[in-house]
Amino acid sequence: MLHSQQKHSFGQASGKIILFGEHSVVFGKPAIAIPLQDLFVITDIESLNNDVIICSNEIGLNSSLSTLSAKDPIRQTIQLFSEKFSISISNIKINIKSSIPVASGLGSGAAVSISILKALNNYYTTNASLDCINQIAFEIEKIHHGTPSGIDNTTITFEKPIFFQKNKPVEILDFKNTYHFIVANSGIKASTKEVVTGVRERYIKNQAVYNCFFNKMGIICKKAKKAFESGDFKLIGELMTENQYYLEKIEVSSLFISNLISSGQTAGASGVKLSGAGIGGNVIALVDEDKIDAVKTAFLENGAAHVFSTCLKGE
Ligand code: PMV
Fold this sequence. Notes:
This protein is of the alpha+beta class and 315 residues long. The chain is built from nine helices and eleven strands. The strands form two sheets. Strands 1, 2, 3, 4, 5, 6 and 7 form a seven-stranded mixed β-sheet that branches. It has a four-stranded antiparallel β-sheet with strand order 9-10-8-11. Helix content is 41%, strand content 25%. (3R)-3-hydroxy-3-methyl-5-(phosphonooxy)pentanoic acid (PMV) binds at residues 18, 22-23, 25-26, 105, 148-149, 151-152, 192, 196, 276-277, 281.
């Protein structure tokens, strides 16, 4: 038993949003995503005299770990950590608090896993590297999302804007200039696993055409990386619009999303696209600071359920 005295340990993880390359990233092309610092999960672990209790007010959970289903992602996260470090997890209460909307394409599931892993790492002083935490979180993502690219867990683990490509070292995105983004949540829940499966089915039927779309999206993402590096705000907006064109081609947009996008454009956004799996989920707009309110209003007037802004500030 490693811990007999009373102690507390914390782990925090933020949400994330994809800026470029969703879907094509599953097929090996690069993508860019940023953490959302204002939305986060905090896990607090305290010692108990017996049992392992999991508490989360947001999902109405206050249960012994042993009563959770074997498939429960929280249970699986704790189990994988225990196996990886050969630690028997006992006598603790794990309190999870989240401000990230669930199943909204904002990384809430990965953030819960990662905040638990970071808290366990602190509690048991296992000195796990971020790469190690990322690997465990990716295992959980694979169990629950089928064939995830790994962009969610990577962005959330490293808490930095990243340029991500499957099976390549993580690259922290270098960027100049300031970028205000407005995120409009459509309020329409779509299963990422189902949308990704749909894309794969269409890809299998039409490989040459889909490969061409994915290549184009990969090129757009690489151009966006360069534009961030040089601080070319205008070009980034244009590339977002171009990326949306190909997301429509692979049929992950919808009339509702298209209407939201048009409303953002009319209100003066410099670039607007869907973000994440699509069908429902989120729309993201790049805006000049003086357009923030107009674009937010346009999104709300056109049916967005929630709207929030986030800012990326470079040198
Ligand atoms: O909607 P989200 O945030 O789960 O994003 C899905 C992004 C995809 O590229 C469609 C899938 C993936 O695993 O990268």
